[in-house]
Amino acid sequence: MPVVASSLHPATSRNAAGGPASSHAEAANSEYLWTLNFGPQHPATHTTLRLVLTLDGEKVVRAEPDIGYLHSGFEKLGESLDFNQYVTIVDRMNYISPLANEIAWHHTVEKLLGIEITPRCTYLRTILAELMRLHDHLLCVGAVALDLGAFTAFLYFFQQRELIYDIVEYASGQRFHTSYTRVGGVLFDVNNLWADKVRSFAKNLPKIHSEVDRLLTKNRIFVDRVKGVGVLSREDAINMGCTGPIARASGVVRDLRKDEPYLAYADLDFKIAASKNGDCYARYLVRMQEMLESIKIINQAIENIPSGPVNVELEGKSVLPSKPAVYRSIEGLIHHFEMIMPNRGFKVPVEELYACTESPNGELGFYIVADGEPRAYRARCRPPSFIHFATFQHLMPGYMLSDVPAILGSLNIIAAELDR
Amino acid sequence: MDFAALNEHLGGVLKSESFRDNTRLIVPAAQLDDLMSHLKHHLGFDMLSDVTCCDYLEYPGATDRYGVIYVVVNTRTRERLVVKTFVNDPSPTLPSMYRHWKTADWTEREVYDLFGIHFTGHPNLQRILCPPEFESHALRKDYPLKGRGERHNFPVITRAES
């Protein structure tokens, strides 16, 4: 990441929560410390993150993340859009793996409404969720390598991401913000050609994966930049609420796919990737390993995908009918009308619940409060990036300025998820 | 988790609800810190997964205004628990959970920013998503979706002043 602006003035009195006590005291007495603003950049580049770093020479004494640049009020919007409309918003919360957010949102809504999705849909969503995990890790590993100067790995992995875009486009008609899931199912069913695309992708990815593995894992320059940098202990990882690859790299072997199985994960054979060191290198290794496990899951799921309907049947009156049914039958038209008109639609209990899925970054949860209307009274998203970025101010002090990209990259911060 | 023993420890003020697979404990605000400390130090709930809030202003049958919701996880037994407490205007205040779990740092700041609930004992209770000049609390139900025109009054900073 390039440094956008720097200034030469004493450390401001704004207090960063946490950080080692010694660095606080040191910072308070030292007039000679520099304050350096790291970011924010244009939204189209990396992310709009601003880090206020207090430097002693090249050593970071205090690091204070400043968020809120993108704040889009997504949770407020969730109170005025119905359960199907809001899916267009949740996929914008995470621009690296949008479908993972959609799956998490409709997983929660279906649990609230008590809808059981069809076996074909569970497998389809599992495949998509794992494709999104690959999508996310490909970019994360590639971007860490790019930030540390290894451009080739980024190109190799980004090209594989393009292939995932193609697969998703073939299923949903959209490359990126797909809005593909619906209450009780998905927008369209997939066909055999799609399955072939997934198979050939899953067959080819391990080759690229092993090339990047050979390029980075034992590369002395890369290893020296990440090994022993940004160490997060097991206790801190639990205490700060870390989940996903970051927690697993610190030895917290927790994966919601195993712990609280949802979709088709209980039927599939896979391992949890974990490490003990808790540094940037461990986080890199966990992500690389997890990609291979995801390929395993995709291979199993695509071979065992059940036939049958992909959406819950019409009697449930909770799923939009297909367009041919709306145009050619009066039942379909009435059903569509009942679903779309205000004051109609789902039967929603006056209740609230929290449900979560294992998104590429960790536990992605939604807390929905429902008041009987077909929209959420309160739609809270528990974003993993937000929780993980809070650890940055604890991880950074004591390391060099040049370690900032390594630590920041290994946390895989997504700005839209921070601010929502 | 043994609900009866926990309830006895707190003097019988707890209520328990269950919906789908969510177990909820409802606790009066005065006993919140006692309960959370017991959950953390005696019952092994070592991870605070989330802190959030809901403004129950127009909610059917609601008697209190703000419900503050804590999701805690026991990473050994994989148990998950939702703890809920209520606070009311004019000065909604709760003890900060920062001394038990560091996750509370940013999550409580977010609740403070968007709902205006104060957390006593929080080390750095500042706005986190909205700018410091912003005075309202955007996720309260009486705050309009389109805002109150605050953004039009933002001061313009010139290059010379910056």
From TrEMBL, chain A:
It is an enzyme of class 7 (translocase). It comes from the Bacteria. InterPro entries: NADH_Q_OxRdtase_suD, NDH1_su_D/H, NiFe-Hase_large. Keywords: Cell membrane, Membrane, NAD, Oxidoreductase, Quinone, Translocase, Transport, Ubiquinone. It is found in: Cell membrane. Its EC number is 7.1.1.-. It catalyses: a quinone + NADH + 5 H(+)(in) = a quinol + NAD(+) + 4 H(+)(out). One of its GO terms (molecular function) is quinone binding. SUPFAM superfamilies: HydB/Nqo4-like. Residues 1-23 are annotated as: Disordered. Pfam families: Complex1_49kDa. GO terms for cellular component: plasma membrane. Residues 147-420 form the NADH-quinone oxidoreductase subunit D domain. It is a peripheral membrane protein. NDH-1 is composed of 14 different subunits. Subunits NuoB, C, D, E, F, and G constitute the peripheral sector of the complex. PANTHER family: NADH DEHYDROGENASE [UBIQUINONE] IRON-SULFUR PROTEIN 2, MITOCHONDRIAL, NADH-UBIQUINONE OXIDOREDUCTASE 49 KDA SUBUNIT. Belongs to the complex I 49 kDa subunit family. This is NADH-quinone oxidoreductase subunit D. The gene is nuoD.
TrEMBL record, chain B:
This is NADH-quinone oxidoreductase subunit C. The keyword Transport applies. It comes from Planctopirus ephydatiae. Residues 26-148 form the NADH:ubiquinone oxidoreductase 30kDa subunit domain. One of its GO terms (molecular function) is NADH dehydrogenase (ubiquinone) activity. It is a peripheral membrane protein. One of its GO terms (cellular component) is plasma membrane. NDH-1 shuttles electrons from NADH, via FMN and iron-sulfur (Fe-S) centers, to quinones in the respiratory chain. The immediate electron acceptor for the enzyme in this species is believed to be ubiquinone. Couples the redox reaction to proton translocation (for every two electrons transferred, four hydrogen ions are translocated across the cytoplasmic membrane), and thus conserves the redox energy in a proton gradient. PANTHER family: NADH DEHYDROGENASE [UBIQUINONE] IRON-SULFUR PROTEIN 3, MITOCHONDRIAL (PTHR10884:SF14), NADH DEHYDROGENASE UBIQUINONE IRON-SULFUR PROTEIN 3 (PTHR10884). It catalyses: a quinone + NADH + 5 H(+)(in) = a quinol + NAD(+) + 4 H(+)(out). It holds the Pfam family Complex1_30kDa. Keywords: Cell membrane, Membrane, NAD, Oxidoreductase, Quinone, Translocase, Transport, Ubiquinone. Its main location: membrane. NDH-1 is composed of 14 different subunits. Subunits NuoB, C, D, E, F, and G constitute the peripheral sector of the complex. It comes from the Bacteria. SUPFAM superfamilies: Nqo5-like (SSF143243). Belongs to the complex I 30 kDa subunit family. It is found in: Cell membrane. Its EC number is 7.1.1.-.
